[in-house]
Design goal:
By secondary structure, the protein is an alpha+beta fold. About 60% of the residues are buried.
Amino acid sequence: MTEPAITPELIAAHGLKPDEYERILEIIGREPTFTELGIFSAMWNEHCSYKSSKKWLRTLPTTGPQVICGPGENAGVVDIGDGQAVVFKMESHNHPSYIEPYQGAATGVGGILRDVFTMGARPIAAMNALSFGEKDHPKTRQLVHGVVEGVGGYGNCFGVPTIGGEVRFHAAYNGNCLVNAFAAGLADADKIFYSAASGVGMPVVYLGAKTGRDGVGGATMASAEFDDTIEEKRPTVQVGDPFTEKRLLEACLELMQTGAVISIQDMGAAGLTCSAVEMGDKGKLGIKLTLDHVPQRETAMTAYEMMLSESQERMLMVLNPEKEDVARAIFQKWDLDFAIVGGTIPEDRFLIIHGNETMADLPLSKLSSEAPEYDRPWVETPPAAPMDPVPEIDAIDALRALISSPNYCSRAWVYEQYDHMVMADTVVAPGLGAGVVRVHGTAKALAFTSDVTPRYVRANPVEGGKQAVAEAFRNLCAVGARPLATTDNLNFGNPEKPEIMGQFVGAIKGIGEACAALDMPIVSGNVSLYNETDGQGILPTPTIGAVGLLDSLDDLIGDTTRDGHVLLLVGATEGHLGQSALLHEVFNREDGDAPPVDLEAERRAGEFIRANRQWIGACTDLSDGGLALAAFEMAVAGGVGLSVEASDTATLFGEDQGRYLISTSFDKAEALMVAAGQAGVPLVTIGKVGGEMLRLGSSEAPMAELTALWRGAFATHFG
């Protein structure tokens, strides 16, 4: 088959700028072949190279005594004691999910699970953070149904519990939804598998499902804005098969016990190209591939198609040649392909042979570690203008507006489509706060949460970045878990616009500051840029996924809220209403500054909660919706009524940070008061539990009516 001529139009279609193409010519000293152009396009796009973000990612805190492996591998690895480690990461599948919601979301789940088990860990938990457009936008309903079905369809069939996440709706996502998938797994701390190739002349082995034409060019598509040609991008979306993935998991974990694996890498974005290049580059070796040996499910596939296909459920491995027969037998048993497709070579070369023809011969290191890196111009986000006064409003009317909105109503319609009890280790199911999973066969448990408030980040990227980490910290502390580490999914618009790059830089500064102050290093993550349609960017959405450890399930703070309990408010209340849920949902306003985050106060409050967990019946952090929404959610969880003494709008709905609401008995409340005084943590009595009404100041309504409104709202909106 004749390869197309390299034209300026073809170069542009591959997402390469003219100066980047000139750099390619300098590196190889000639015009690239079509296949080589595709390889450079895949490796140098934003999705694979992080060329706009690398400079700033290097500033994040990534180390600590608990960190076994930080960013740069398939997933991060953190020590949880007793020779065990938790392996976790979060990654985006935004563009594919907007084009093809079911498969985009499903393959996002599949990809993140492979990132975890390619490190040698068995997945034990999944989460997802979903951002959609306005509820009345013509595409939102289809996207919600498709994405939720895709997440559930893949995760449920694979057999991993989905134990948390978040769902939001805002006009800024009308043309570009966000689907961020998180997975965590357990491994022995001394049996982690890495991707760096080692040894010259070692076989490079293709594992898993066959290669097809689905997803060709997917990574390049994910590194560009959308416009009115969006439907033409549908073939770049991958197709997933969770049952094949389950077999691949079991085959890989069995294989890893045999000593056959020298290194292993998931075939994710840019498929065979990216996995081979990363393995070679990390090991400072070259790779030679013979594509005739690649298992194919379609006829007459070209070298270009095979190298750029993003067909799912595939791995690439450098094999100990003495164990070839053992390894092959395992994959035959699991009815999966096992094919030696190449080998490691000493030269810095990426050599691709197809049909006895050399289709690519490139310096391998230039594709990965020497990809372009940009210091994009950026401008600081200007300070928020002073906000207009917020009128007083009936508290129950305001609460009704919040709990009936798609942003703050019950998410049961979503998470009930996910299996959260599979593996039988889920201790705290999705719904409110962090999810908790038992570490099987031990007394320990792991807590997981995902958090960000994009309105805050847009108004004040530094404080918004801090707040995302601080809220994750609070959600873990509220169940009694010691925060260990974080993963980030940094979703932004076009980084070539200085104001967007300024949002990114500010958020990174805030995230880094908070991770350092709260001892929650970033150990893995993903950057998703160019989330724009027709020049309209999303809200800056740097999602933080965090993991915490409970040394014993006896340390778990439950949700025991009973008649006769008193309500205690931890932390200082100033009544900050800028960028609040009340403003957005009730007054249709998005003005003011983000709430400031005092990281020292956050740390003190979190440590106070964990140190005094034995006195606490139930605990929730205060975030969107402030005290009023936190009190309502605590009442729902306990199946009780309660009354809050505060009556003014700012106290009830302000979103000051560093705060928790506690329910406990009167005598234990006294002990907490003493402990708070000693710890220098503000603590006041704010109300009491009992009856069948929810009372906020002088306004009240039956809990049964409010609960029904909250529970039914999502189905009312999306059916």
